[in-house]
């Protein structure tokens, strides 16, 4: 039980950290990508503004107009000069280091100028092909591959300006890869820490649970002796005094106490999980348990309808498995409101599914959550005449979990169904 708690804590921590890491990496990547694209479009716009053909009024390609040149002002000490920050020349160094391409087309669609920028990475033919492809798209700006582009209609020609973003894209990919590696390492470290912390948190609870189980077991064994003594003394008094109302009450209460102690010890053994297991024909075992209950059901005017699939084998303790079946049948006989009880045993995938259904008074969702708790009863005013202490379903749950399975209760259409799911043995899986 506590191992499951540790796994849940670790899963919650890891899932939360993983989600946080993914959100953080995505946010950084997207924001950085947007910033780089915006800076690239701004520089490309500046490049287009400065572009002019030979003979066209204005500077040549790549030249700066006089008004684009940085103005200077004295610094505070008067010993130096620093660029005047007017918002236009802030990224001039980055602008000069960037790789721009341009292709100019006449109004008739002929190529009249090609500029491969400061590098020989692209041939003129490839630039012309790329520019023609951009013009066919009909978009004034955008991105294709590792190049962002801008199309401007001039008086005598059409300019296709391009900025190569290959280095930025590579840096972005490298940054994301490094962040992913560092994040993964940090996640692994945090997983180890979360396991350690979860164990430290659960350890006191586990120790307390062990002490409670030990107390129940020790108390049960200690109570067996006085119960036996009371029974023996009552029997002696009956021989001397004969049948007596007070002695009958003593015997009745003593028997109830004896049954309660037996159930507590059974629950303690089932929860400890320390029981021998063997290959068991679960189908035959269930059939054997149904037979005696059919006569009990008949006496109460009820009928048990069973549908048992043959050949289902479990690795388990026969005694505890019999107790599981008898508890579910006894619960249906004692608390069912109808005259019919349905029992089924089916093999689903690699599990044996034992279901017991019967008509019942309404059971709320809140009550369903507590059905398997010790001493819990849906009807607090119910009489104890049948020696039910609210431990039967707790024992059924402990037995199921001791065999690596799970048990749950469902209520629908005035019918309550208890379903125990147990892993099958190797022989059953082969079949």
Give the neighbour order of strands across the main sheet.
4-3-7-6-5
Number of helices: 10
Span of the ends, CA to CA: 31 Å
Domain unit count: 2
Silhouette: elongated
Enumerate the spans where pLDDT stays under 50 for 5 or more consecutive residues. Answer: 57-90, 381-385
Structural write-up:
- By secondary structure, the chain is an alpha+beta fold.
- It has 2 domains: about 1-75 and about 80-170; about 275-430, Heat Shock Protein 90, CATH 3.30.565.
- Helix content is about 55%, strand content about 20%.
- The protein contains 10 helices and 14 strands.
- Strands 4-3-7-6-5 form a 5-stranded antiparallel β-sheet. Strands 9-11-12-14-13 form a 5-stranded mixed β-sheet. The chain has a two-stranded antiparallel sheet with strand order 1-2.
- Helix 4 packs antiparallel against helix 5 (about 245-270) and helix 5 (about 245-270) packs parallel to helix 9 (about 390-400).
- The protein is elongated, with a radius of gyration of 41 Å.
- It starts with a helix and ends with a helix.
């Amino acid at each position: 039980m506590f191992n499951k708690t540790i796994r849940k804590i670790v899963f919650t921590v890891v899932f939360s950290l993983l989600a946080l890491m993914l959100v953080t990496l995505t946010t950084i990547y997207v924001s950085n990508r947007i910033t780089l694209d915006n800076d690239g479009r701004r520089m490309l716009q500046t490049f287009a503004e400065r572009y002019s053909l030979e003979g066209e009024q204005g500077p040549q390609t790549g030249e700066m107009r006089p008004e684009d040149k940085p103005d200077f002002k004295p610094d505070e000490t008067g010993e130096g000069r620093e660029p005047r920050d007017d918002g236009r020349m802030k990224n001039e160094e980055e602008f000069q280091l960037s790789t721009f391409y341009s292709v100019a087309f006449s109004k008739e669609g002929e190529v009249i100028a090609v500029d491969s920028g400061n590098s020989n990475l692209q041939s003129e033919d490839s630039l012309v092909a790329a520019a023609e492809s951009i013009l066919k798209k009909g978009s004034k700006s955008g991105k294709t591959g590792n190049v962002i582009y801008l199309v401007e209609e001039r008086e005598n020609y059409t300019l296709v300006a391009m900025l190569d973003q290959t280095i930025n894209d590579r840096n972005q990919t490298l940054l994301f890869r490094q962040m992913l590696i560092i994040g993964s390492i940090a996640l692994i470290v945090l997983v180890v820490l979360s396991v350690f912390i979860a164990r430290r948190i659960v350890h006191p609870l586990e120790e307390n649970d062990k002490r409670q189980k030990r107390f129940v077991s020790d108390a049960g064994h200690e109570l067996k002796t006085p119960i036996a003594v009371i029974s023996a003394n009552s029997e002696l008094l009956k021989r001397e005094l004969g049948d007596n109302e007070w002695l009958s009450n003593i015997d009745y209460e003593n028997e109830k106490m004896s049954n309660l102690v037996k159930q507590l010890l059974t629950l303690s053994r089932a929860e400890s999980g320390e029981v021998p297991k063997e290959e068991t024909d679960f189908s035959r075992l269930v059939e054997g348990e149904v037979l005696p209950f059919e006569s009990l059901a008949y006496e109460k005017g009820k009928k048990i309808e069973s549908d048992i699939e043959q050949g289902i084998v479990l690795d388990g303790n026969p005694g505890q498995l019999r107790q599981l079946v008898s508890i579910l049948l006894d619960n249906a006989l004692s608390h069912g409101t109808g005259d019919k009880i349905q029992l089924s045993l089916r093999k689903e995938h690699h599990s044996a599914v034992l279901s017991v259904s019967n008509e019942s008074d309404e059971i709320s969702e809140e009550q369903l959550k507590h059905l398997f708790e010790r001493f819990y009863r849906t009807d607090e005013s119910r009489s104890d005449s049948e020696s039910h202490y609210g431990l039967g379903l707790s024992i059924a749950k402990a037995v199921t979990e001791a065999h690596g399975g799970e048990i749950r209760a469902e209520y629908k259409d005035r019918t309550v169904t208890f379903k125990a799911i147990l892993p099958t043995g190797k022989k059953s899986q082969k079949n």
